[in-house]
C-alpha cells in the first residue's frame, strides 16, 4: 500500500497534532530521548512490529538512548504520505505509554 502524498495543508494539520515533529530535508523527523538504551530498544521493537503489520517502515538511527526518526514513503517518490503520519502517531502513542 503506497499511501497518498499529503498536500501542504494536510501536512501542516498533521504536524499540529504531532508534538516535536518537524519537516527536515523533506522527511517527517523527530528525535526521541529515552531513559536508557533498553528503553529505546524496547520502543523500537514494538514500533517495528507495528511497522511490519502496516507494511510501512521507518528510517531511524539509534545511539544509546537517542532515536532519530525520518519518515518518508519510498513507493511515492520519497514524498510524505498519510502512512508516515499514521506511523508517527503510533510512535507517539507507544512512547507515551511505557517508555518516557
Ligand atoms: C512492498 C512493500 O510493502 C513496500 O515496498 C513498502 C515497504 N515499506 C515501506 N516503507 C516506507 N517507509 N515506504 C515505502 O514506500 C514502503 N514500501
From TrEMBL:
<dbReference type="InterPro" id="IPR001533">
    <property type="entry name" value="Pterin_deHydtase"/>
</dbReference>
<dbReference type="InterPro" id="IPR036428">
    <property type="entry name" value="PCD_sf"/>
</dbReference>
<dbReference type="Pfam" id="PF01329">
    <property type="entry name" value="Pterin_4a"/>
</dbReference>
<protein>
    <recommendedName>
        <fullName>Putative pterin-4-alpha-carbinolamine dehydratase</fullName>
        <ecNumber>4.2.1.96</ecNumber>
    </recommendedName>
</protein>
<dbReference type="GO" id="GO:0008124">
    <property type="term" value="F:4-alpha-hydroxytetrahydrobiopterin dehydratase activity"/>
</dbReference>
<comment type="similarity">
    <text>Belongs to the pterin-4-alpha-carbinolamine dehydratase family.</text>
</comment>
<keyword id="KW-0456">Lyase</keyword>
<dbReference type="GO" id="GO:0006729">
    <property type="term" value="P:tetrahydrobiopterin biosynthetic process"/>
</dbReference>
Amino acid at each position: 500500500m503506497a499511501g497518498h502524498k499529503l498536500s501542504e495543508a494536510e501536512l501542516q494539520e498533521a504536524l499540529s497534532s504531532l508534538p516535536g515533529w518537524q519537516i527536515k530535508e523533506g522527511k517527517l523527523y523527530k528525535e526521541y530521548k529515552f531513559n536508557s538504551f533498553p528503553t529505546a530498544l524496547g520502543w523500537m521493537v514494538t514500533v517495528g512490529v507495528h511497522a511490519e503489520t502496516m507494511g510501512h517502515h521507518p528510517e531511524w538511527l539509534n545511539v544509546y538512548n537517542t532515536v532519530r526518526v525520518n519518515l518518508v514513503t519510498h513507493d511515492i517518490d520519497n514524498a510524505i504520505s498519510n502512512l508516515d503520519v499514521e506511523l508517527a502517531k503510533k510512535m507517539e502513542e507507544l512512547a507515551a505509554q511505557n517508555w518516557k
